[in-house]
Design a protein that fits this description.
Glutaredoxin; 116 residues; four-stranded mixed sheet; 4 strands; single chain; alpha+beta
Length: 116
């Protein structure tokens, strides 16, 4: 299964992750979820595998701009609705290696997981 990296193109962390993949000759597809959106079934699978707490970026500008009522009493259902409505609230990047998912960019983890 091909490697897919999910995120937005102008994110500094995304730029670092993509540069690392290219420097290490890892073939990948880039999915810009700001432009292309994100399928609810894919987000459901990510949440089932990792938990919504791992995926929801509470430090993002988008999340911080929400009214306090939207940020209170978060549940998986509420968090998924927020992330689908505004995918920039998803931590970046999400690297889908087929059998595993990595969230965020850590070079040592990328090296270990892409070498397998």
């Amino acid at each position: 299964m091909p490697v897919t990296i999910y995120g937005i193109p102008n994110c500094d962390t995304m730029k670092k992750a993509r540069a690392w993949l290219e420097a290490h000759r890892v073939d990948y597809a880039f999915h810009d979820y700001r432009a292309s959106g994100l399928e609810p079934a894919r987000l459901d699978a990510w949440v089932d595998k990792l938990g919504w707490e791992v995926l929801l970026n509470k430090a993002s500008t988008s999340f911080r701009a929400l009214p306090d009522a939207d940020k209170k009493d978060l549940t998986a259902k509420k968090a998924k609705a927020l992330m689908l409505a505004n995918p920039t609230m998803i931590k970046r990047p999400v690297l889908d290696l087929g059998d595993s998912l990595l969230v965020g960019f850590k070079p040592d983890l990328y090296a270990r997981e892409t070498a397998a």
